[in-house]
Please model this.
Amino acid sequence: MDEFDVVVVGGGAAGLNAALVLARARRRVAVVDGGEPRNAPAERMHGFVSRDGMDPARLLEVGRAEVVGYGGELIDGRVTRIDTGFTVHLAGGRALGARRILVATGLRDELPDIPGLRERWGRDVLHCPYCHGHEVRDRPIGVIGGLAADVALHLALILPQWSPDVVFFPNGIELTADERERLTARGVRIAAGRVSRLVVHDDALRGVELADGVVVPRAAVFVGPLFVPHDELLTGLGAEVDDNGWVRTDGTGRTTVPGVWAAGNVANPRAQVVTAAGEGSAAAIALNTDLTNDEVERAVRDQRAAGGPFAASVHG
Ligand SMILES: Cc1cc2nc3c(=O)[nH]c(=O)nc-3n(C[C@H](O)[C@H](O)[C@H](O)COP(=O)(O)OP(=O)(O)OC[C@H]3O[C@@H](n4cnc5c(N)ncnc54)[C@H](O)[C@@H]3O)c2cc1C
Model:
């Protein structure tokens, strides 16, 4: 079995940045990646200074080459289980030994079940104004409610910053008088009734069709997905989750399981690419410190066993 100081599960921005920092710290690090980053449907990535407008796949390609350049190992595959100690099991039977674990497996966006919506995801069906609001500025924008009512309402209230033409489709959300007042005060129009489908022509969104057959022309729609973390490996190891169902971590990503860290969307639904990369870096530095602490303890024990301490002199 191959042995590593750290096995990183997930090779998105979080996992790759962690692996880069660890490999540069001369740690033996492997990244196991399933190859399904969350932002894969988007053509461009925004909001990452010096990387704005980059193809998200290109970011990972560059990151992977950097990790390999410092001696990190990249393994394409899926981790199915991690045993304490740690043994990392991959689909297909390979197992890796690790002194520490970083889980950076991201999350899944659960979308409202509306015909046409999933197919347009990341193109003209969006969820993050900071990622793609600028690209649809001043266009006719819709906000469709459905799963996360609070997120949909928040989107409807902030999107007028990007366009004066915003229509809110509650799609089953019961609006209070207060919410209605706030939306109309922001200039947001409300289209009552269930959404039956998205109207798409020539590979572009044209409108939102309501159950009564009325089509409201729109160039882009925003939805509030349910964020479902890929945290089975962490909970399988016994990691505690908070009241909202997210794995509990400290400021460096350390979970409640000794030796196990988490970074990026798996524990933080708000992490953008730049945030996920930063969390990966912070986790890597904490992991390296944790490994170093172990090594210092062991060295002290060995020195005492040999009759030390011995004075270390620079004069030889
Ligand atoms: C459509 C869309 C567009 C977006 N656009 C932007 C944008 O413009 N700017 C921005 O900052 N953010 C954007 N985001 C958010 C961005 O996707 C996340 O911030 C980012 O992907 C989080 O990085 P991560 O490393 O935590 O997870 P991910 O990038 O999702 O990477 C996780 C990796 O772990 C792998 N994995 C999962 N489980 C396993 C397993 N068991 N074994 C092995 N590998 C596993 C996955 O295959 C994946 O490759 C967008 C999101 C979406 C949905």
Notes: Residues 138 and 163 are 4 Å apart (CA to CA). Helices lie at 13-24, 56-69, 117-120, 129-132, 149-158, 177-185, 232-236, 273-305. The two ends are 40 Å apart (CA to CA).
